[in-house]
Write a structure and sequence with these properties.
The protein is α+β, with helices and mostly antiparallel strands. The protein contains two helices and four strands, in the order βαββαβ. A four-stranded antiparallel sheet has the order 2-3-1-4. The longest helix is centred in the N-terminal third of the chain and has 18 residues. The protein is globular.
């Protein structure tokens, strides 16, 4: 099963702080929905752009995407 990385983009001088805070909400969603997901995170792309992300299996993607409305997604290729 392929893994997909759902991504939320944040821009501006506070982007990293906002992305870090958004990850908290992603983790709360995982707990609330009793999902078997473990990979979340946030990352600074540059000084004015940061992302928060959640990795899901491809068959789980549509309901999570519809509920959380990520800005974009991509294949997750990083090693675990």
């Amino acid at each position: 099963m392929r893994l997909l990385k759902l991504i939320w983009d944040f821009r501006g001088p506070d982007a990293l702080k906002i992305a870090e805070h958004h990850e908290i909400h992603l983790k709360e969603y995982i707990i609330r929905e009793n999902l078997d997901l473990e990979i979340t995170g946030f990352k600074a792309e540059n000084d004015l752009h940061a992302i928060a992300f959640l990795v899901v299996q491809e068959d789980q993607m549509k309901p999570i995407r519809d509920a959380l409305k990520p800005h974009r997604g991509q294949l997750y290729t990083e090693t675990l």
